[in-house]
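Lecture notes, structural biology module. Today: joint structure prediction for complexes of two components.
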Amino acid sequence: MNTLSVWQLLVLVVRRDLLLAMRRRADVFTTLIFFVMVVSLFPLGVGSEMELLRKMAPGVLWVAALLASMLSLGRLFSADYVDGTLEQMMLAPQSLSILVLGKMIAHWMVSGLPLVLIAPVLGIQFDLSAPAQGVLVLGLLLGTPVLSMIGGIGAALTLGLRGGGVLLSLLVLPLCIPVLIFGTGAVYAISAGLNGAMVSNLALLAAMLMFSLVLTPWVSAQALRISME
Amino acid sequence: MAINWFKYSAPSTFYGLAGKLIPWFALPAAVLFVIGLYIGFFVAPTDAVQGEAYRIIFIHVPASILSMFLYLIMAGYAALGLIFNTRLSSMMATAIAPTGALFAFISLWTGALWGKPMWGAWWVWDARLTSELILLFLYFGFISLHASIDDPRRADRAAALLAVVGSVNVPIIYFSVKWWNTLHQGSTIKFTGTSMHVAMQQAMFITLVACWLYAIAVALTRVRSIILERERHTKWVADLAEVKA
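The predicted structure, tokenised, for the full assembly:
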């Protein structure tokens, strides 16, 4: 039983979580629809001047992505917590950090990746130029996994608490501010023709991705142990 | 003679020690506040550029400094509690949090009051203002996570982990906000302290020390209440003179 390599274990967890998500497709779509809806509300709220919308687009899309990922974070551990699977995972001889990382990756593929894929369509609504679109999507591609991973810490800490959803946002949103700044900064930079600034913003996002990839699974595992004892 | 370094790491012994220490911090704090504010308001000269309005720095600067230091100290205590599983460290972290949040709030409030005459706006999205606001959010996160978990031990450890994660994030947040600021609006008006008057320096230093002493006194008072609340089922609490009375 104990012969699974780390890689196999990771693939196993990701496949399992994706399978579970596919059995309940409605959950995936609610996040996506929420994202589209929030983004579409902004022109209704601030008016339809193209100049203004083009300026706001990166911020609006990023904030909406941030909120959408907050909404779906509650599901990261809760189902496994309720039916006892999580307890078994913690008893398993395999590393809990790797299991958590697998769950985070699956969560991103279900709730983050669809947002990245639909972002260009919403970008067209906001009249973004093609290079800006590309940078926006690239930024979201690098940044949304970070949101899932930082959010994972919050989800683990608030596991099984009353009012968990709002509390989770309160804990995680301040920690996600750098992602928002770098993600939107890259798009603003390319719109202003500052290629160097664009690259450095994306590079910082990539650095945050690497940093989170190393640390957050372990921290979330510790948080789970605190929450489950 | 061997000294027992860990004698006061037990809540029961620290309770008494804290009670004895509080007046030694509270009284000097009150006296220094009076002296510092007197120098600040009556001795220090009027600023050449900013007129009388600059005098708010005697509150604003100490509050800002303390709000940042207290977060680090809180995270330090929280980490100690998490690593060594010492109850008192976690209690200290919990006791410091509201004071830190208070100072962050005072810093923002006085900053707004200062900004109105100087910048012409209550709020400017300046890097320092924005990071102070985020710091306040981090304090709120710590306090509300602690408050929403019923089991005190779990609350301590969960909040401690959050504080440690937060302190790792603080430099990242600070620099990201700083770069965001330069990208968006260039330079805002900055108060570069070109050779402050001696009386100004004295007043600021004295109020800073007063704020430190105040923070320590309040944290100790709060930790005493927390100790009593957590240990209310124990015999030593029942034996306390103030509980019996």
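Point to remember: Helices of chain B lie at 11-43, 57-84, 87-119, 127-148, 152-185, 198-230, 235-239, 241-244.
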